[in-house]
Structures are given as structure tokens and as C-alpha cells.
Design brief:
The structure holds 2 protein chains of 2 kinds.
Chain A: H1 6-22, H2 25-48, H3 57-73, H4 78-100, H5 105-125, E1 135-136, E2 142-143, E3 146-147, H6 151-173, H7 176-186, H8 188-193, H9 198-224, E4 226-227, H10 234-247, H11 254-265, H12 277-291, H13 295-308
Helix pairs in contact in A: 2-6, 2-9, 2-10, 2-11, 3-4, 3-5, 3-9, 3-10, 4-9, 6-9, 7-9, 10-11, 10-13
Chain B: H1 3-33, H2 41-58, H3 63-90, H4 94-116, E1 130-133, E2 136-139, H5 140-161, H6 163-173, H7 175-180, H8 185-211, H9 217-232, H10 237-258, H11 262-276
Antiparallel strand pairs in B: 1-2
Amino acid sequence: MSKIKPAVLAVVALVAITLPLYATPYMLQIATTTACFAMLGLAFGLGMRVGLPRLDIAAWWGVGGYATAVLMEHGVSFWLTIPAGGLISVIISFLVFSLALPRGMVAFFVFSMVIAMAFSQVFGSLSFLGGWGGITGVPSPTIFSFAFDTQNRIYYLGLLFVVVTIAVYLAFYHSRIGRAWDAITSSPRLAGSVGVDVVRYRMVNILVGSFFIAAAGSFYVIHYHAAIPSVFSFTAGVNTIAYLFIGGFTHSLAGPILGAFIVTFIPEYLQFAQTLRPIIIAAVVIFILMFLPAGLLGVWDNKIKPRLAARPPERRE
Amino acid sequence: MSLSLFFQILINGIMMGGTYALVASGLTLTLGVIKVFNFAQGHFLMLAAFATYAIVVALGLPYWVAVIVSFCGMALLGMLIYFGIIARTLRHGFFNSMLATVFLATIIEQGSVVTFASQTRTLPVVVKGTAKLGEVTAPYSRLLVIGISLVVLIALHFFMRRKVGKAMLAAAENSDVASLMGINPNRVFWMTMAVGCGLSGIAGAIVAPVYGAYSSMGSVIFSRALLVLMVGGMGSMSGALAGAFLIGILESFAFQFLGYWNLLVVLVLVGVLMYFRPGGLLGKPMPLPGE
């Protein structure tokens, strides 16, 4: 895994924190959406750390979102709905994936795909979830009479969510569990042979991911004040996995964030072609997959960085 | 439940099963041989349905022309997509090629929404009338779908026994060793892609008169094809056939009793089946990338 330099990190943090000073409200709203999508992309990156491509992101995203929407309708505080939604998605994903995980990567892959499809169907069919119209008018969260009701406050809340997610993931990556994950990434069989319980460590990874995906769903719902089933569709979940590949496959933290930023932000300037926008994004993604397989950060790692650090070539006989 | 109703549901189920079998065998073939999970498999069906609409309604040509043109057109498109996108992403790994097909599916679906304004185009019935056998009745149009899909599936079976089909199976087993035996993997791969997409093309042409042509039909069929693959085993051809008819009939009966909850019931049953037969119902699946 390659590291991002502290200077770059400082610039990104500075831009992110001072964004409300010079951004238009519309731009800020997109930036907030980017924060939510970045969390989804990060969860996909987390899954790829153990070689599992999660296509079930949309399912837990929706579970978190609907948990927040329904519970807040009944007067529960937003801060309690996050663990509630997270817990529900963790329990369901444990039940489902204890079936699929021992069967290997392809079984997991298909299971996760089918779950995402099933959940978007369930969200639309259940009447207490508002049917296909969804739940609208979700109130803003408050903390001690301080309401997150302006765009700026919601933006900073989203930023906090992303930072907490990254902090937790980093803590995992640098722990014993993270080292076991790295062993599984390089070869599940080899890891198994040296005594790493592959299925169990993968399960931990999936459950952590599910929790944070649900948290992203909670945040999305209070950002848009609505939970609508078409938002949590299978395709929406699949689009989030492009973030990692656009940003850079080897960067499981910086990659999805850069990718989410590019996919969410730049198309907003393609206003001339609203209906053609998904086609343009898809074409760009296919182009990146074909010609820049390591993603944009991969270009930086492989092409630009070696040139910046141009030392006189060492001669080896 | 009366006997006539039972047979009506059964025929519906077999008809849907035949369609699923065509799409799923294309999907399982490309997955097994090229190791590409083609997310656009269902969308080729949608394109073929629109092509059938264009040929039958707009151009006024006979229906069998539409079936042949759909097959050839989708096979050609599959070949072009193999050379244009899949061959170039496949060398970067399984996920790159899979994601490329995901976004290809987005392009096709959104393109059809832009072009056809997401409304259903209905086609005239190909053959009118109903077959009667005592109490049991079956419309000829649905029997035609069953007939064509069975003929194509049998043709596929014999095709896989010929030299080209054997080369495909050899490349599925191990493309490096196959190339040592004088099989050109690249040639086998584009042919597989052409056959897989062509199967979806025929499926699209035969369902178009029954369901009409609409933009989201690709993803609907694709989700069923996934279930079929789970039931039949990934990369197994005979499994795809068995799974397709099973899912089709199950779905059709569940729809009769539960309405739009039928998919969930099918999903639960598939989950239970996966618990007892994780590798699928039948056959030995082809080796897949991953572990």
C-alpha cells in the first residue's frame, strides 16, 4: 500500500474545511453528497482488502437510511438511529454471509448481488416504509438544541462522518486484524495455511463495512430529508464500486474518496446534457478501466512520481 | 385450483424458463470460458427486443427475419464489444472487465431511455389463436416462445459438441494449456462472446411479442439469470438449463398466489437451496477466477 504525503493531506484537509467560505450552496450540497458516497466507496475498498467485491452496498445503505427515517418519524433521536440501523444491517449481513462466505469469493459475489436486488424490492413493497414513494420530510438532527439545519452544518457533519470512518478503518488496518486482512489479500490459501481463520476475518471485515455503510445511509437520509427506494437501487450500489477503480485500486482510503469526488462533482458541470450524463460518466469509467487500470492515483504512483524523484540512474553490473 | 389454470401457469412458467435459459446459458458460457461476468447480458435482450419492434412494426418485415437479424446483430455486437472493451480490460483482471460491462449496461439502458423515452412498445401477436386439449388451453404465441427456445437450446447443445464448442470448453478449463494444444484463445473468446450475446438476441426477439419492448427489461431478466446461475451452479451449462426452468415455473406459481412478493419467495428458496447444495443443482461448474 502506498502512502499519501502529509503535505497533500494537509492541503486536502484545508480545502475541505474552508469549502463553505467560497462554495455556492449548490456546490456545498454536492460536496455533502460526495461525503456520503465516499463512505460507500471506502466500505467497498475495505471489502477489497480481503478480496471480497461487495455488491450489497445498496442494501445496507438502504437499511441505515430507512432505520433513520422510520425511527425519527417516531421521535427517536438521530444519534440513536445510527447504531440502530448499523446493528440491523450487521445482524442481517451476519446471517446471510455466514451462508455465503465459507463458499468462497464467487458465491459471496453473487449472494451480495442478489441481496442488493432483493432489498430494493423489499423497500418498495413494504407499506410502513412508504412504498415506492418512500418517506419524506425527515427532520434535521439536533444536539442539545443545536440543529444541523443549514447546508454548512450538514456539510461539516458529513465531513465528520468521513473522518470517523477513515479513523476507524485506519485503526483496523494497523491492528492485528488488519495484518490478517493483508495476508488474506495476497493469498487466501496461504493465509489459511499459516493459521489465519480466513472466513472469520473476512466476516469481521464485512460486518465493519456493513455498519459504516448503514451509517452512510443514515447521513444520506438526513441530508436529503427523504428515504426513497429508487435511490437505494442495485445500480446505485454498483456505481459506488467504480469510485475505488477510478481513484486507484491500491489506495483503499484515498482512492474511493478521489473517485467519489470525480464521479459526483465533475458531471454537475455537464448541465447541458442531463439525460446523457450517466452515459458520459459510464463512458469515462470504461475509458479509465481500459487505459488507466491502476486508476488516477496509480498514474501518479507509476508515471509522475518516478519522474519527480528523478535520480541519476544507478548502474548495476 | 382448476386444471386449466394449473396448466396455464405451468405454460407461462415454462415460457419464462425458456427465456431465462437462453440468457443464463449465454451468461454462464461467457463466465466459464472468458471469465467475464457480463452484466450487459440482459441488456442485449432489451436491444434485441427493440430491434424486433423496429423490424416488425416500423419496417413491416416478417417476424422470422426479426429473429435472425436479432441473433446476428447481437452476435456481431458481442464480437465488437469483446474486441473493443473486454479484451482490453480483461488483461487488467476480472474486476476491471466486470466493471466495464456494468457501465456498458448503464450506457445501453440509459441510451434506450433517451431514445425510446422509457415507454413500452407493444408488438402484434405473431400467431393468433389458442390450442385446446380438453379443458386445457394455451395460446399459440406462448407455445411459439417455448418452441423456439427449445430448438435454440438443443442447437446450442449440439454446437457445444462440435469442434468449436469443445475448443470453448477446453479454453474454459485452462486457456494456457488450451493454447499449447493449438487452440487460439482469442478466437475462441470472441466466438464465445458472439454466441453468448446472440443467445440473448434470440431471447429478446421471442419475448418481444409477449411482453413488448421496454428499457428496464434488461435488468429484470438479468436479475433472474443471476438466480438461475446460483441454482444451477456458476459456469455449468446443464445447471443453467435446469435452474432456468425451475426458476421460471416457481416464479410463475408464486406470482399466482403472492403477486409481486413472488421474487422474494423465490429468493428465500434459492437461499435454502444454496445452503444444502452450495455448488448448484447439477453438473460440474467450470473453474472460475477468485480463490
